[in-house]
Amino acid sequence: MRAALMLLSVLLAPAAARGHEVLHELVPGHAAGLRVYESDGEPLADRAYELWSPSDARAPWQAGRTDRAGWIAFVPDVPGAWRVKVVDPGGHGLDTTVQIAPGGPAAGAPSGPGAGFVLRPLLGAAVVAAIFAALFLVQRRRGVRR
Question: Where is the chain membrane-spanning (predicted)?
Fold first, then answer.
């Protein structure tokens, strides 16, 4: 019983993992600046990205890594919907399009909070339910053995 409780406490101990999502905002000006960040505001620093032009979607127009503040900078040569893909080693990432107006990059609003604010409480409720279910099963087993 003691070993089972010890194993249960180790498995349910909070880990360094946390749920998050990747957001972006387009900054107006001659060059397009795109900042990618998690829902808590932490930038996706030094992450690989690919950028596709609307004139040729077969091959990336630009590839590289975000800077330490999560910025991607490029000077678009044609207006339209540019595809941006950023993926971190954990598999989280962003695959979106940004609109570039004929006169240059248009001001874009931040992408908003997304679904993270709904998923965190649901995940917490699921963890609490799992703990109570495990305790119920352990207690039920103890009752059957007596």
Answer: 117-138
Number of Cβ within 10 Å of residue 20's Cβ equals 19
**Chain centroid, CA 10 distance in Å:** 26
Spatial contact of 49 and 64, defined as CB atoms under 8 Å apart: yes
Give the tokens for residue 124.
């917490």
The Cα diameter of the chain in Å comes to: 79
- Under a CB-based contact definition with an 8 Å cutoff, are residues 116 and 19 in contact? yes
| Claim: this prediction has a pTM higher than 0.90 | no
Among all chains, which residue has been given the structure tokens 């649901």? 122
Calculate the CA dihedral of residues 56, 57, 60, 65 and round it to 10 degrees.
120
- Residues facing 84 on adjacent strands: 51, 96
Q: Distance of CA 103 to CAs 30, 55, 56, Å?
A: 9, 17, 20
Q: What is the pLDDT of residues 12-44, one digit of tens each?
A: 665 545 556 777 776 666 788 889 888 888 888
